[in-house]
Amino acid sequence: MDKLDKETLEQLMSYPGKGPCVSMFIPTDKAGSEAQQANIRLKNLLRDGKKKLQEYDLRTKEIEDILKPAQAFVGDSMFWQHQENGLAIFLTPDLFNYFRLPIEVREQVVVSHRFHIKPLLPLFTMEGRFYVLALSKKQVRLLQCTPHTAVPITLDNAPESIDDVLKYDDPEKQLQFHTRAPEGSDGYRAAISYGHGDENYVEKENLRRYVKEVDKALIKAIGNSNVPLVFAGVDYLFSIFRENTRYNYLAKKPLEGNPESIRDEMLQEKAWEHVEPIFQNTKEKALARYHELCGTGKTSTNLEEVAISAPDGRIELLFVATGVSLHGTIDHENKSLHLENDKNPAGEDILDYAAVRTYLNGGSVYPVPASDMPGENYVAAVFRF
User: Fold this and answer.
1) Fold that domain 130-278 belongs to in CATH
2) In angstroms, rounded to a whole number, what is the distance separating the alpha carbons of residues 88 and 259?
3) CA distance 379 to 307
4) What are the beta bridge partners of residue 140?
5) Per-residue pLDDT for 345 more than 70?
6) Long-range Cβ contact pairs of 183-192 (< 8 A, separation 24 or more)
C-alpha cells in the first residue's frame, strides 16, 4: 500500500499498463464491525471483474493472475479489521496496489484501458478537505479531515512533546522551565507576558523551537497547499505557531483549550464549523467567476472541448457532475471525442479523465450533483486562456 498523494494519483492516471486496468472501490468500516460485509462485497466485485475481463479475450489463467492479489484479501479477517471508510484496489497484469480511504465510496468495479480515478477526487480537491493540528506541550496530533471523517496522519521526526526538544539542553534551564510558574487546572500555566531578558522570554524561545520542529514535520507530511489547517490548542501556543509556521492556509481562529483529551472525531466536528464557510465562499466565488465569463469565450460546457483542453493546463476551474459516467475515446491528435453508446470496456470515463487532468495541471475541481450543475451539462469549465 503506497501513500496516496498527488504523485501517486498521476502515476495511476498515466499508467502505461500492458492489458486492462481493474479498479475496485469498496465501502468499509473503520471500527471493523462490518468486516464480513466488506469481505462479501469484495467477493462480488471479483466475480463481476472476472466477467468484465472476459470481454478482453483473456485466458482463464490470465484473468486469475490479474485478480489473484485482491483474491488474497477474501477471508483475511485481520485485513478487514484495519480499515477506514473505503478501500480502493487497482490491478493490471503487472501492477497491484490498494489504498485505505478516509472517505466513503460507492461499491463498484471498472475495467478499462485506464484506471478509474474519479472516486478519489474528494481527497485532492478543495471541496471539504482540511487538516487539524492538535498541539500542546505534551502531545502533537495531525488529522486529515472531511465533513464526516478524521484520519490521523503520522508526523515523521516530529517531537512527541516539548521535552523532546529540550532534552539536550542545560538541565538547570529545563528545571526552571517546568517549575517556574504554577499550572492551571487544565495543565497549563497561567497567561504569560513575554519580555526580553527574563525567564518568560526564555520560555517563549523554547516554545518557538518546539513549534518550528513541529512545523518542519508538518510541511514534510502534507506539503504547503491551500487546504485549510485548523489549530487546536491554548491561545498563547497558537500565537507562537501563527508567527512561525510556513503553512500557507492557517485558519484565523483556533479551537481554543487543551486538546489532549478531545477525541479525533470531536476535533473534526468542531473544526468543520470553522472551515465550512471557507469552502462555501470559495465555491460561490468560482460559480460567480463562471457566470461572469459566460459568453466571453473563456467558458465551455462542451464535453469534447473540455476533455481535449484538460491535459494542456488550459482549465482554471472545472465543475463536474457526480454520479455520472460518460465513456468514450479521446483523439488528441485530431482533437476529437467519440462517445460510446454503451459502456464499451475499451472506452474511459471522460468526466473522470477531465477532472483528474485538470487537477494535476493545477486547476480547481468542484464535484457537483448533476441537478446543480451550471450550464445545464455534465461539465462546465473556466479557461485560463
Assistant:
1) Nucleotidyltransferase; domain 5 (3.30.420)
2) 32
3) 9
4) 135
5) no
6) 186/234, 186/257, 186/258, 187/136, 187/138, 187/258, 187/260, 188/136, 188/137, 188/234, 188/258, 191/235, 191/236, 192/236
Contact 305, 312 (CB under 8 A): no
Q: CATH: 3.30.1330.30, 3.40.50.1820, 1.10.238.10, 3.40.50.170. Which one for 294-383?
A: 3.30.1330.30
Determine whether 30 is exposed, middle or buried from the number of CB atoms within 10 Å of its CB (0-12, 13-18, 19+).
middle
What is residue 112's three-state secondary structure?
strand
pTM for this predicted structure: 0.68
The per-residue pLDDT of the chain, averaged, comes to 87
Q: Which helix (H) or strand (E) holds 135?
A: strand 130-135
Residue with cell 480502493: 88
User: Rounded CA gap, 227 and 354, in Å?
Assistant: 22
The predicted pLDDT at position 136 comes to 97
Record: fold of 6-116: 3.30.960
